[in-house]
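As noted in the main text, all predictions were made from sequence alone. Below is one such record, for HAD family phosphatase.
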Amino acid sequence: MYMASPKNQALPTQDIKLLVLDIDGTIAGKSNSLSKPVKQAIAAAQAKGIHVAIATGRMYRSALRFHQEIRSNLPLAAYQGAWIQDPTNQKIHYHLPVAREIAYQLLDYFEQPQWRSLLSIHFYINDQLYVRELTRETKIYAQRSGIIPIAVGDLRKILIEYEPTKILALCDDTEAISQLLGNLRRQYTPAELYLTTSVATFFEATNPAVNKGAAVRYFAEELLGLQRNNVMAIGDNFNDVEMLEYAGIGVAMGDAPTEVKAIAQWIAPSVEKNGVAIAIQKFLLS
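Prediction:
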């Protein structure tokens, strides 16, 4: 039922009080929606008194319908945790943007001749998506996300007044994205910028204090008074690594990259095989 892992055989039982879920590739697959088995498993965990939260790279407004569908009683962690907001009272617990100076530097880098024709650049400001132009990749992204991009031409004029919550570069060429990530990781230290990929075609940059592990720690320790061994987290990609490492039980989806599976304590089936439901049944409902 699941992909074998040496860690699967000796995983200790944990007193889980908080379950944190990624969206894309974890609870939502090709259909861009939650399956009935996943919704039922989440509801069953909540009926046992387990808190369920979402931590996603998505925009807040794009992730909100998933948060509402699972009836979470916790804030929503969007943009890898750069924006944490409670939908019930609209309180923003955290907003940590990319420094304006670094945003300018990244934009200069993206607009070098070897990158300009390859990349679609997204700036996320005040939970709106700003782009220089509506590329094919941007249109596909917008359709799945359920948002309307705002084309402004030169993105520098947006930076005059605002700092972006997140910067995203899209490209169908996964080798180009890998090269871009490697280049910029050599240029910026982790203390200057958090760089990751949420899928192989998305390069993402946020404030250096931002990652899903920090968001999950905030949920657990600051809001609920829990410890890491009370937490279970499920994700499928490199932007989930920090929360899988933090959690007492870190579960990677079956189609996660090999490096992500390597740090997880259990490997679930893929999203299309309702891996989240199976993981919840194994660890929280058995």
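The radius of gyration is 18 Å. Residues 174-187 form the longest helix (14 residues). These features were considered when defining construct boundaries for the mutagenesis experiments described in Section 2.9.
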